[in-house]
Amino acid sequence: MMFSVRLVLADHYMSPPIHELDVSYSEFRGTEVEQVPVIRIFGSTVTGKKTCLHVHGVFPYMYIPFEGSGAHDRLMYQIASSLDKALNISLGKANATVQHVFKMTLVSGLPFYGFHTKEHQYFKIYFYNPLMVKKAAELLQSGAILNKIYQPHEAHLPYILQFMIDYNLYGMNHVNLKNVKFRRDPENPGSFECLSEEILLPERVSRLSTCETEADAMAADIINRTAVSDQLALNPGLAAIWEDEKQRRREGGRTSQITPQSSRERPFAASTDSALFFKQKLHEKLLLLNSQLSNNSSTLLDTPEVTKTPYPAETSEDSELLEASFVDLHIQSSGSSPFIRSGQMEQDDNASFVDEDLVLSLLSSQRRATHNSVWSKYCYIQVLFI
Predict the structure, then answer these.
(1) Helix, coil or strand: residue 50
(2) CATH 2.60.40.10 is held by the domain 3-58+162-228
(3) Domain coordinates in residue numbering, the chain
(4) 3-class DSSP state for residue 372?
(5) CA 126-315-84 angle, 5° bins
(6) Could you read off the pLDDT of 127-176 as tens digits, one per residue?
(7) Quick one: which of 224, 216, 220 has its CA closest to 54?
(8) How many beta carbons lie within 10 A of that of residue 333, not counting itself?
(9) In terms of DSSP H, where are the helices of the chain?
């Protein structure tokens, strides 16, 4: 069945996997999945019903370069295992065995930095928790993983924005789905009598909002991505809003062509005391940050164990690697057998190479920076009330 919801607000939460909707087993790690990210979209349907839509099967990711030397399968397991250990250390749980990396794949794409005519190879790292992506990027850049300084790509993108880019979604536009399942309302059990049991979730999947309608869907069922066109407007996210306005003008007997208003002249405004104060504080912080970065860079370069940043290897013409922009639908194959690893592969998977001192040093510097930031805000508030 076709279902559409206007994307007004979106956030995410972590939840145990729902068998009917989520991946419950990681074939890459060979373990059961305990927590998965779920995107929650609030909006209204075409008929005006306030709706909460839960989107399953979207994992946050980033890229790091692959040099092309050695077996990439073994290296992927080492990076994943090392990231798990480093993240656990940074969270103050050095002895924990919690896995943060869902899976890794080898992909091909054009490097973002510099001029390139050929595609290069990258590892695409998928995480369970979106909040771990930034921490993982910092650890990769610090040289704590495998004694190499990795340059992450797309690690700066927020999870929700990454999801909207991949599936061609825009704020205030409709999310179109070809399949959807509804959550039952225990306070109004007769509200879904006209619907088939096939599109209703079990009673164990409880509602999480007060919206009139609450539904779940897999990201693989979003059909907006198929509507991508080469003839895009400057801001296609506003297309639906402009079309609504044109329709209102037609119904009011006015022309649907909207003439933009001319801009008003802006008079010169002198800088206020607060603006000058913050400008000076920004200048001081930038100078401090620049000196800290210089010191950290020199420390890392002086460390003999840390090698230079890996450069991605070129992709051969006969390569069958996936495109970096390929959207993995993360659908659990119903008939697939569990992924069985050999003893050597198991050993490689557990082999982590983490500079624990560097991780702790990075964690300490972050805490000091947070403390200084909070203290600066406190001092500024005190100055305002003097």
Answers:
(1) strand
(2) no
(3) 3-58+162-228, 61-160+301-332+341-355, 356-386
(4) helix
(5) 25
(6) 999 999 999 999 999 999 999 999 999 999 999 999 999 999 988 889 99
(7) 216
(8) 9
(9) 72-90, 132-142, 159-166, 239-251, 273-302, 343-350, 356-384
